[in-house]
Amino acid sequence: MTTQPLATEQPLLSVRNLKIRIQMDNGVMNAVDGVDFEIQKGKTLGLVGESGCGKSLTSRSLISLNPKECETSGSIHYRPSDSEGEKGIDILSLEPNGKAIRSIRGRRISMIFQEPMTAFSPMYTIGNQIMEAIRIHRTKDKKEAKQIALQMLSKVGISDEEKRFDQYPHEFSGGMRQRAMISMALSCNPELLIADEPTTALDVTIQAQVLELMRSLQQEFGMSILLVTHDLGIIAQMCDEVAVMYLGKIVEQAPVKELFRNPKHPYTKGLMRSMPRLGGGKEKRLESIEGSVPMAIDMPPMCSFYERCKDRIEGVCNASAVPITSISEDHTVRCFLYSEPEGGESP
Amino acid sequence: MLQYILKRILLAIPVVILISFIVFYIIQLPPGDYVSTYAAQMAAAGDNMTAEEMDEMRENLGLSGPVYEQYAVWIKKIVLHGDFGFSFSYNKPVLDVVKQYMGLTLVVSFVTLFFHYIVAIPIGIYTAVKQYSAGDYFFSGISFIGMATPNFLLAIILMFFSYKWFGDPLLGLFSPEYVNAPWSMDKVVDLAKHLIIPVIVIGIAHTADLIRVMRGQMLDELNKPNIVTARAKGVSNLKILFKYPTRAALNPIVSTLGWSLSSIFTGSTITAIVLNLPIQGPVMYNALLGQDMYLAGSWLLFMALLTVLGTLISDILLAWLDPKIRTEFRGN
C-alpha cells in the first residue's frame, strides 16, 4: 500500500525535532539530532539504519524508556484514538516513571525487543510475565488475567498453551519466546507496537513466521507498528513508510515503494546496493559502504555522511548543515545533491 | 527433588569420612603428643616424668600405635558407640565438652549470619540503585573500612566504648550473676545484650564483603534487558526492583551460604579469645595447642559436618530459587 495518508486524519503519533544528548567523558554525544516523523493509524513505519545510528534510542524515547543519562528534548505528541478532538499527550512532558506514562506503557504503546531470551526474566514463568501487564492494565482478577493470557498465547500460535503458560523462558525455543513476547505486548490491545529489531536474533525461517504473525495481528487489532531494523528486506515486506536514519538524523523518508524504486540519498542508495537480490547476477559482488559510522561527538555543522559519501561536493557538503529537501509530496531527503535545483531553504 | 536431596546426603558421607581422616592426620603431625606436652607441664611444675611413665601413659590413652590404627580405633568408637574419645585437658568425654560449648557457638554463629544478611542485603540493594550517590560512597567507605579492620582490634575498640559509656565492657556472653543461673527471660535479655559486640565484630568483615557482592550483582541485574521489558509493560520501578533484579541477585548470595557459615566458625576464634566468649573458637585453639587430639578432631569433624550441611541447605535453597536448576531436577 503506497496510498498517501489521508490529510484529514491526524497521525497517531508525531515526533518533532527529537534530540537525545548523552553526556560522555569526552564530550556530549548527539545520539539523536533533530528527528521528525509521524506514525499513522494502522500503518507501519520502518526505521532503518546501521547499529549506533540512534534508532533504538529514538524508539525507546517514545515511551520514555531511556536511562536518565539521555537528555531528551523536542516533542512526542501522542493522540489516543479514544480522545477524539482532544489535544493528546506530549509524552516528553510526563514524569519519566510517573503514573501517567506507566498507564500508556504496555497498555496503549507496547514494545517487543530483539533478544527474547534476555528480555524475559529467567526467574518467572512465561505466564507470570504475560499476566503482569494484563493485571496492571486490564483486570485485577487473577483468573480472568490468566484466561486473557492463554487466549493471547494461542493467538500467537503457541499450542498447548496451558502447559506453556507454566513454563520458564529457557524451556521455550527462540521463535516461541518471540511469539510469547508478542503475545505479552499485545495482551492489552495497544494502539502502537514498537518492535525493536524483533527478528534479528532469529533464524530466517522463524523470522518469516514471526513477521507474518505480526502482520496478521496488525490487521486483526488495527494497531500501528514502528519497526526498527537494519534489514531492508524486512522493511520491504512489512512497512508502509520508511525513514532511513544515519548518525542521529533521518536522511531520507518516503513511502516504501517510492523509496525502493527511487532512492535519493547516497546512503540509502548504498544500503540498497549492499542488499542481495534475486536475479542480481552471480558474478557481481555485493557492494558495501566504505568506512564506519563516526561518533556523534562534537560534530561540526556538515553532512554526517560526508566522509563515506561517493558523491560528496567539497566545499558544500562539509561547509554547513544539510537542510531537508522535498523530492515529492511525501518523499524528503537530507542531501545537498537535491537542494540546489529546488532553490530550497538555504542552510 | 527428594531424590536429589538423598543423593546429596549420600555423597556427603565419603566427604565427611575423608575430612575426618585428614583432620586426624594433620592434628597429630606436629612433633610430640599430649603426653609430651603433659610431661613438659609437669617438668615446669618441678615433677619430672620418666620415659617408662610416659610410655605407660601413652598406652593408657591409646596413643602408642601408628596413626591409622589410632584413627581406626577413634572412628570405630564413634560409629559403634557414639563415643568421640576423651578430652585429656578437660578430663571428661569429648562429647560432654562439645555439648557444653556447641549450643552457644551455634547461637552466636546463627545470630551473626542472620545479622549479616539483614544488614548487607538491603544496603547492597540501596548502594546499587543509588550508584555513585553520597549514600553509596558512605556505605562503600564503611564497608571497605569494615573489611580492612582486624576483628580483634574492633572488638577492643567496642569494648572500650562500651565500658566508657555504659560502665560495662560486656565481656563474655553473660554477666557473672547469670553464668550459672538457670535459663530465664532475664538471662536471655542479658545474652542478647552481650551478643551485640561479638555479632558486630564477627559479622562486620563478612557483612562488608556481602555488601560488595550484593551491590555488584544488583548492578549487573539492573542493566539486564528484562528490566526494560518490565518497564515497557508499565510496571512501577519499585515493584520491578524487588521482583526482578533483587530476586536474581540473591542466587550467588544463597549459594555461598555454606561457606559463610564455616568462615564464621573459623573467623571468630581470635575475637572469641579477646572477648572471652565461651564458644568453640578458644576451645579448639587450646585443644590444638595442648595436642588434645580427640577433642580437636571431634570439633573439626562437627564443623565439617555443619559446613557440608550448610552447603546442602544452600543448594536446596538455590534449587527453590532458580527455576533453571529446578528444571534440571525434573529432568532427572
Automatic annotation (TrEMBL), chain B:
Keywords: Cell membrane, Membrane, Transmembrane, Transmembrane helix, Transport. The keyword Transmembrane applies. Signal peptide: none annotated. The chain crosses the membrane at residues 9-27, 101-125, 137-163, 195-214, 257-279, 299-321. GO terms for biological process: transmembrane transport. Residues 102-318 form the ABC transmembrane type-1 domain. It is a multi-pass membrane protein. Coiled coil: none annotated. It is found in: Cell membrane. GO terms for cellular component: plasma membrane. Belongs to the binding-protein-dependent transport system permease family. This is ABC transporter permease.
